[in-house]
Specification:
The chain is of the alpha+beta class and 181 residues long. Strand 1 and strand 2 form a beta hairpin. The chain contains four helices and seven strands; from the N terminus they run H-H-E-E-E-E-H-E-H-E-E. The strands form two sheets. A five-stranded mixed sheet has the order 1-2-7-5-6, covered by helices on one side. The protein has a single domain, classed as 60s Ribosomal Protein L30, Chain: A, CATH 3.30.1330.40.
């Protein structure tokens, strides 16, 4: 009787454990980012090499830390102080260009933008005159393009702050933290 009971317990344990499903591997939602970028009339350039002793991006675990980038165009950087040399609209455009640059850095590093799980945090720095107070409106250019491209994955925490100066007098500099699959 004791042997029958032990056999019954063993069979029950084996049948319970074999009927449990293994956890499904993470399913990464896929979006045709090449087409999405084309529809938004956005082209990504290969990121330039850093101009000092740093790297464009560092990965630790599932987080990417992107170095600060500025608004580089085919004609060079957009420079000047918001509130003196540049309008809010010009600053917004500079921040948007910087967002596109950062997307290019991510794509170059990961190879596939579908690996972006979430844009976590953005720090936007505005080269601003002392009395300029519209930093959020300027950095919205960055945030808007990130959300246009990544949708819900692109919604992020953010700081938009004024600086007395930025390297080479660039209008804005933005760094970000991204979680990946």
């Amino acid at each position: 009787m004791k042997n029958i009971f032990i056999c019954f317990v063993c069979i029950t344990i084996l049948s319970c454990s074999s009927s449990q499903k293994l956890a499904d591997p993470v399913q990464i939602p896929t979006i045709n980012y090449d087409q999405k970028l084309k529809n938004l009339d956005i082209s990504l350039a290969k990121p330039g090499a850093p101009v000092a002793n740093y790297v464009n991006i560092v990965q630790t675990g599932k987080l990417l830390f992107l170095a600060g980038k500025g608004p580089r165009t085919e004609n060079g950087y957009i420079t000047g102080k918001l509130g003196d040399d540049l309008s809010i609209e010009e600053g917004y455009r500079a921040a948007r260009i910087t967002g596109i640059t950062q997307i290019g850095v991510i794509k170059d590093f990961l190879g596939d933008l579908n690996r972006v799980k979430r844009v976590v945090k953005v720090l936007g720095m505005v080269n601003a005159a002392p009395d300029f107070t519209s930093h959020p409106e300027v950095i919205n250019g960055f945030s808007d393009v990130i959300v246009e491209v990544f949708g819900e994955r692109g919604k992020h925490a953010r700081a938009a702050v004024g600086m007395g100066s930025l390297p080479r007098n660039i209008a804005v500099e933005v760094e970000m933290i991204v979680e990946i699959y």
